[in-house]
Design a protein that fits this description.
flat, mainly alpha, 0% strand, 30% helix
Length: 47
């Protein structure tokens, strides 16, 4: 069985994940949310 280092206990949730989670929670409560926390754009980005 593979074991993980104890250092994994020092990891924290990223700000992007926190914002996505908050957006989902607010949307579930009926708040109109425009979630810009992460994702792929639906347009070509400039180089």
């Amino acid at each position: 069985m593979t074991t993980l280092s104890n250092r994994i206990n020092n990891l924290s949730e990223s700000a992007t994940i926190k914002m996505a989670k908050l957006g989902r929670e607010l949307a579930a409560k009926g708040v109109d949310v425009i979630n810009l926390s992460f994702g792929e754009p639906d347009f070509h980005t400039p180089e």
